[in-house]
Write a structure and sequence with these properties.
7-stranded parallel beta sheet, 8 helices
């Protein structure tokens, strides 16, 4: 079983790897033996995460990246292709949220959330998959969706729309990239307190979430590690593509 989930010798690129959830998933991949390349904008945070990852005796580095700039995405993909001959695991974790009421949403805010949560994922996958396709290297792409992609939540219409679109493009890319041995799946987390949602977790909203979550608690970031390791592993999930793996404490199973 240990061999089934071993990622030794694999290279994992974690987009948004300096975030709370991104860094935790990066640590999980490292514990399974994967070498890690973190991308993000905050080099100081990246250095702290790199210090943690080093304890697992894997290679780890940081590439400063702005996912809202397509040239930045393209540059990082080119560097990884040139220096490492491609990638094995591509994990898209960058994301932003907002609680602006429906009638107050402005075009700039809509565009910002869509650019980070959807557009960046689409073109990151395109740039990275194009290069692995040319090298016939295969790979596992893992996108991060949300329970709000299935059950739209009040006060976060733009975020919910962006994550519903992530589910759609995940399925599309799974079909498009299967002939090139590139698997594409998504993880649907429930409520994990992180930078992008702390500001919307008012007392009333927390009560509403707990009332709808059978396990009556938030998730811990480490509880996403098992799902990402599973989807990354060719031995464990080699026939899994176009799937959504839900980690939500039962939120999605509660209809009334």
């Amino acid at each position: 079983m240990n061999d089934m989930f071993s990622l030794k010798g694999k290279l994992a690129v974690v987009i948004g790897g300096t975030s709370t959830l991104g860094s935790s998933m990066a640590l999980g991949l490292a514990q399974s033996g994967a070498d890690i390349i973190l991308t993000g904008r905050n080099e100081n945070k990246a250095n702290l995460i790199i210090d943690e990852i080093k304890q697992y005796d894997v290679k780890v580095s940081f590439l400063k990246t702005d996912v809202q700039q397509l040239e930045s995405i393209k540059e990082v993909a080119e560097i990884i292709d040139r220096d490492h001959g491609g990638w094995d695991i591509l994990l898209n974790t960058a994301g932003v949220n907002s609680q602006t009421p429906f009638f107050d949403i402005k075009e700039d805010e809509w565009n910002n959330i869509m650019d980070v949560n959807l557009k960046a994922v689409m073109f990151t996958c395109q740039e990275f998959a194009r290069r692995n396709k040319a090298r016939n290297r295969g790979g596992s792409i893992i996108n991060i969706s949300s329970v709000s992609s299935i059950t739209p939540l009040t006060k976060v219409i733009t975020y919910s729309a962006s994550k519903a679109a992530i589910n759609s493009i995940t399925e599309f890319m799974a079909r498009e990239l299967a002939p090139f041995h590139i698997r594409v799946n998504a993880i649907i987390p429930g409520f994990f307190p992180a930078e992008q949602n702390r500001k919307i977790l008012t007392e009333d909203r927390v009560k509403s979430i707990m009332d709808h979550t059978p396990m009556k608690r938030f998730g811990d970031p480490e509880e996403l590690q098992g799902a990402v390791i599973y989807l990354a592993s060719e031995k464990a999930a080699g026939f899994v593509t176009g799937s959504m793996v839900t980690v939500d404490g039962g939120f999605g199973a509660t209809k009334i």
